[in-house]
Specification:
The chain has 117 residues and is mainly α. The protein folds into two domains: 5-78, no CATH class; 89-117, no CATH class. The chain is 57% helix and 0% strand. It has seven helices and no strands. It has helices at 5-18, 20-25, 30-43, 61-64, 67-78, 93-99, 107-116. The longest helix has 14 residues, at 5-18. The chain is extended.
Length: 117
């Protein structure tokens, strides 16, 4: 498989977000993000017990982009059965303590802290 798990997941999410059907069927905003998130989670293959170690399982890109799964999620969003996920935050204060630095002063620094976490 190669590469980093985060890169694969981000790539899958990126493909989902730029998919013309997703862009057409979901308004830009939380609905589109949640639709991609649901597709990512529901298409994960928990085979061989990997879900115990890898969150939802192994990324299955073809299943994630399946039109049938997209139609199911679209129906759920249109029926108001999908709610926005809580906003995440990441803080790696231990790293800042080790490095003797203060809190992130820019979005770029926040991005690096997120990567480190």
């Amino acid at each position: 498989m190669g590469g980093d798990l985060v890169e694969h997941t981000a790539g899958g999410g990126g493909l989902c977000i730029v998919d013309p059907a997703v862009r057409r069927d979901f308004p830009a905003g939380w609905q589109r993000v949640e639709a991609c998130r649901l597709a990512l989670f529901r298409s994960a293959d928990p085979g061989n017990g990997s879900a115990a170690y890898l969150g939802k399982g192994i990324l299955d890109m073809l299943k994630m982009l399946d039109p049938g799964l997209a139609a199911q999620i679209r129906q759920e969003v249109q029926a108001n059965q999908v709610q926005p996920s809580p906003v995440d935050s990441v803080s790696f204060s231990f790293l800042r303590l080790l490095l003797g630095s203060g809190p992130p002063g820019s979005e770029e620094e926040r991005m690096y802290e997120t990567e480190a976490a």
